[in-house]
Write a structure and sequence with these properties.
The mean pLDDT is 88. The chain has a 5-stranded mixed beta sheet with strand order 4-3-5-12-6, with helices on both faces. It is an alpha/beta fold and 299 residues long. It has 11 helices and 12 strands. The N and C termini lie far apart (53 Å). 43% of the residues lie in helices and 23% in strands. The chain is elongated, with a radius of gyration of 23 Å. This is LysR family transcriptional regulator. InterPro entries: LysR-type_TF, LysR_HTH_N, LysR_subst-bd, WH-like_DNA-bd_sf, WH_DNA-bd_sf. It comes from Alcaligenes pakistanensis. Belongs to the LysR transcriptional regulatory family.
Length: 299
């Protein structure tokens, strides 16, 4: 087989676009399309189909992708020594899937550091959560997914714990006055904003059930950013991950935090990546970068 076809396959897996793959390979779109037709014949499969997020890989493409990636790495190792990734000389766009509470904390740190260091790389951030991260990895070709207590981990992915976290209360101190710290009675009888995956029920509701009380929920949200905007000028209390709460407070002096006056669970935040990117120098650099940025979260 023509090894150039494997390069085209690899680039399509990374870019999910014929146009972007052509630009990356310095080829015409017609040349990439022609190579894709040949690949479809060789593997007797469509390999990539057009979808709402670009060229989506088929099950067969996902199956052979790790083998092709390893084959290309082995060939590359025969003819050249691996070079350390240099973010000051690369136009690489790193794709990162993460939940909006983590995006609020991490995205600005990543952008600020890149600007300070004069890096020429850039980032694309995509929304996901503990349940949907595998879908985000496939649909967006994410280099990394970051979420709390990720579900559905398999042998196709590797993960690493970044830090541990818990929950804290956030409210508008100019609108609502609470004790410092907030008392249990104040918390139980306050009006709440709910943030949950489906917008219908969250773990805080279970805490109230244990107290044999009905939580007074005035509004439900599926994203923390929208919930934070909504409580400005309102009496609502939010219960959210502590790292996100502190990040929001840094940006708005009206907000205040208080420990949750009930026993709340702890959890871990992890990053996940495709096992076929385990030894990829760019992926390794990105993971080291994220580790560095989150190293002080528990400090």
């Amino acid at each position: 087989m023509d090894l150039n076809l494997l390069l085209v396959f690899q680039c399509l897996m990374n870019e999910r676009s014929v146009t972007k793959a052509a630009n990356a390979l310095f080829l015409t779109q017609g040349a990439v399309s022609a190579s894709l037709r040949k690949l479809r014949v060789v593997f007797n499969d469509e390999l990539f189909t057009r979808g709402s997020h670009g060229m989506a890989p088929t099950h067969r493409a996902l199956e052979i992708a790790p083998q092709i990636s390893e084959a290309l790495k082995s060939i590359s190792a025969l003819v050249t020594s691996e070079q350390d990734f240099d973010p000051t000389r690369s136009s690489r766009v790193f794709r990162i899937a993460l939940s909006d509470d983590l995006e609020n904390m991490l995205a600005k740190r990543m952008i600020r550091r890149a600007d300070e260091q004069g890096w020429t790389i850039s980032f694309s951030f995509y929304q996901t959560n503990s349940y949907l991260w595998p879908q985000s990895m496939v649909e967006h070709g994410a280099d990394l997914a970051i979420c709390s207590s990720p579900k559905f981990l398999s042998t196709m992915h590797k993960s690493q714990v970044l830090f541990s976290a818990s929950y804290i209360c956030v409210y508008d101190k100019e609108t609502t006055q609470f004790s410092t710290p907030m008392s249990k009675q104040e918390y139980l009888h306050a009006r709440h904003g709910r943030v949950s995956f489906d917008g219908l029920r969250g773990f805080v509701d279970e805490l109230f059930d244990a107290e044999r009380l009905q939580r007074k929920v005035k509004a439900s949200f599926t994203h923390f950013s929208g919930a934070i905007n909504a409580i400005i000028g309102s009496p609502l209390v939010l219960t959210m991950p502590d790292y996100a709460a502190h990040s929001f407070v840094e940006c708005n002096s009206r907000l205040a935090v208080s420990p949750v006056p009930l026993r709340v669970p702890s959890f871990v935040v992890s990053m996940i990546w495709d096992i076929n990117k385990e030894h990829d120098e760019e992926s390794r650099w990105l993971r080291r970068f994220v580790l560095e940025l989150t190293d002080q979260v528990n400090a």
